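User: quick one - fold this with A1D88 bound?
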Amino acid sequence: MGERADRLRMDVDDIETVAVIGSGNMGHGITEVVAMAGYDVTMRDIEADIVQDGYESIEWSLDKLDESDRLDESPETILDRISTEVDLETAVAGADIVIEAVPEQMDLKKDVFGDLDDYAEDGAILASNTSSLSITEIASATDRPEDVVGMHFFNPPVKMDLVEVIYGAETDDDTAQATYDFVEAVDKTPIFVRKDVNGFVVNSVLGPFGEEAAWMASEDLATIEEIDAAMVYGRGYPMGPFELGDLTGIDVGYHVRKEAGKEIPPLMESKVEAEELGRKTGEGYYRYDDGEGVSYEQGQGEDVDTLRIEARMVNEAAKLIGNDVATPDAIDTGMKLGAGFPEGICVRGDKLGLDTVLAKLEDLHEEYGAERYEPADYLVELVESGKTGKEAGEGFYEYNTGSGPGDYNTLNWELTDDGLLDVELDRPERMNALSNDLMDAVVDLLESIDTEDVRAVSFEGAGDRAFSAGADVTGFADIEPAKRAEPTEVFQVVDEFPRPTIAKIDGYCLGGGFELALACDLRVATEDSTFGFPEINLGLLPGGGGTQRALRMIGEARAKELVFRGEHISAERAEDWGLINRAVPSDEYEDTCADFLDDLVSGPPLALQHAKRVMNEGADEDLDAGLQMESQAFALLLTTQDAREGTAAFQEDREPEFTGE
Ligand SMILES: C/C=C/C(=O)SCCNC(=O)CCNC(=O)[C@H](O)C(C)(C)COP(=O)(O)OP(=O)(O)OC[C@H]1O[C@@H](n2cnc3c(N)ncnc32)[C@H](O)[C@@H]1OP(=O)(O)O
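Assistant: Sure. Structure tokens for the protein plus A1D88:
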């Protein structure tokens, strides 16, 4: 066990050895994640056969990851870190953190925690992977509730990025912080749930998604298919509420609501009574065994009152924030990573207008008198103080009001002292797909930043899988064709930005993502990156300049091959065809990018600006016109201080210092 001078100063660096209790779906998934991150881990279950099944599932999963090149090490190396055990005392001996993942029954969990209290090392973190039970009550089975914390992985842990870190009533801050840091150390994204509320964050907000939909269908306000179609095609959710209910099991949500003493929508009640519980029983809201299964279509449900469902989710978020359970950022991260929402619910609330959301809830409350529509105090407070959302400049978040770039939900940026504007597309859970929000953020950043402070711009994608996998296809249903008939602003703004731009590409660079990279001046990629215009497979064409920029760059035959066939090409081929400047091995990538950027940042700003302009504009002109533009720019640059400095430095055999004057 790691040395700990003072157990209250628990730190992630103290954690070396992990025990996972339970080898079912969650238990073996968590074991795999922890071992992949380099920790020694013991997985324990009550019988040798059961724990062996879990181990074999890990072997299978690691092989699959290996086949698709998703492992940094061999499956054997990772498996070597995993041992299996049946005896609980042996399993937890020496473990710095114990993660319990036994079935969701309070009595069973309390038994396990009672035993952990006896056997686990003094000061070890005792974490429960419960998705719905009270951490405070689980902790009450021990004499050390300050060491007990919730650590809710989502299913399947290997694929899902989110982990909720939940405080019980007595959880020590150091325990919670070390757990949070440990989640990051195993390459997952943690969010704090600072109070032990029913449903934690994700299930609290997600609750009304299925429930309000069921109330609406119970009252014949719309059909199941209409509501699902409206939420998916109209509002961009990855699944309809009924489709999701059938997948997770209608009884699951039903029991959670029953235990919380909530009123149950009649449709949900009748499905549970008839034991039509979803996919697992062959019938739920849809019929699977004897029917066509999920059967909604685009265009259905255009009149469905989707605000009713979204207003209730926004209200849940407001309750969590007002009660200091979670921040808007944590909630939004949770909903995107844990529930696949196209954007955070707080961002969505701000866009809908919190006054609109409040008015909807008040109308419903007046009509039905039901507690579920009662507006959260915090929501009322925001609206009364004029913080009604994005349009007002502040809601759950503060927005940029035009006095310079601000913080963005889907994009991170930093301007270094030497003038590098470092931009990160930040939607790793969606392969950094370009949502309207993200494209607006890029435009806002480039248009509001003071160009004088910038010497070069670099774009990269967050996470380790993609630069960007294209425009966000889930938002296509919202686009009005008439509005899309003009070139998309973001590609123009990047193309015309008066400083050199570079795309740093590590992973998928597809569709609109590829077009963003092509709108940059230069492109450096890892050899493992993949490029392509898959739009044709969606019945579309590259709509962000791809047909035109690729054509001019690589000629008709190759551009048409890319666009017509929609196939992915390797970085090697992209380099060979002249689509990118360099394809380099991963271990040379950062250095190569740094070399490019050093040259751009220390180069003469005015000369770079004019070189970029005449090359961009000249590409569309005949040679004479292009040469004319070039000569004019050359003459103009001769009058600059930078040109004098450059020539003087050459003669004096020193490095020039360009100032842009
Ligand atoms: C004007 C411009 C037009 C366009 O750009 S149209 C879009 C063109 N792009 C595409 O068609 C690419 C779509 N994406 C893919 O084909 C695949 O992804 C990849 C090959 C890039 C990776 O495949 P895999 O490794 O199996 O990952 P995964 O489970 O498909 O993706 C992880 C999550 O990312 C979401 N996602 C990926 N690309 C997009 C996208 N373009 N728009 C919206 N979401 C996207 C997925 O759905 C999924 O999400 P979940 O985990 O919730 O299932």
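One thing worth noting: The radius of gyration is 28 Å.
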